[in-house]
Amino acid sequence: MAQDIQFIAQTVATMTEHIKDTDIRRNVIGKANDYAKLKKFPDNKEQWNDEQLDKYLGMLEKLSGTLEAKIPNDFDQMSLEDKITTLETADVVTVSDISNVVEKVVNKLEEKKSYRDDLKCPYCGQMVYDNRNNKKSDKSPDFVCSTNDPAICGGHSGKWRKSWWMDNSDLPEEWNLSMDL
Fold it and tell me: Does some domain include residue 178?
């Protein structure tokens, strides 16, 4: 069933009409749209199912709220999935709380989309393949050393080439890949 775009627009306008500053209102709606992008909703809101529309409007409601949410102290150390779950289940959050997190997540996704061909293996100095854009599964590594010889690359296990995932603690700092979300 196609969603009524006029209904969505009217609902968004009604939910945000109490925000008098147009820049803040635009920011709130933009962050709700970023959330929909992050959750991989279709770009065209008419193609959303009822559950996606409910989640979007629920997040918009939270973003346009004014009360502080009970955000756990270890929030900054949580995984991306745990952060999203925490924000989705929070009663109300401030615009700044969630917009900063959503902005970081969107930036992280943009960073992930940008292919890097300048990475060097810290063990052997050879090129490292950036597989983030063409991984076969989530279990596949994000980066793999191009050297397939354990005698040349000290990171080679003897069976497997040295590999890294974005959430690895041994991701080389010199690659300048942001790890904070």
Answer: no
Tokens at 35, concatenated: 């959330």
Q: Is residue 177 part of a domain?
A: no
Q: Which two tokens stand for residue 108?
A: 């992280």
Per DSSP, 17 falls in state T
| 61 and 20 housed in the same domain | yes
Q: Which of 72, 172, 169 is nearest to 128 (CA)?
A: 172
pLDDT at 162: 93
The pTM of the full predicted model, rounded to 2 decimals, is 0.43
**Does residue 83 sit in the same domain as residue 47?**
yes
Report how far residue 60's alpha carbon sits from residue 72's, in angstroms, rounded to the nearest whole number. Answer: 21
Q: How many Å apart are CA 111 and CA 92, to the nearest integer?
A: 29
| Sheet order of strands, 143-145 included | 128-130, 143-145, 163-164
Containing structural domain, residue 21: 5-113
pLDDT along the chain (181 residues), means of 10: 80 84 84 86 89 87 60 69 72 53 62 75 93 84 91 89 86 73 36
Same domain, yes or no, for 109 and 162?
A: no
Does 108 share its domain with 24? Answer: yes
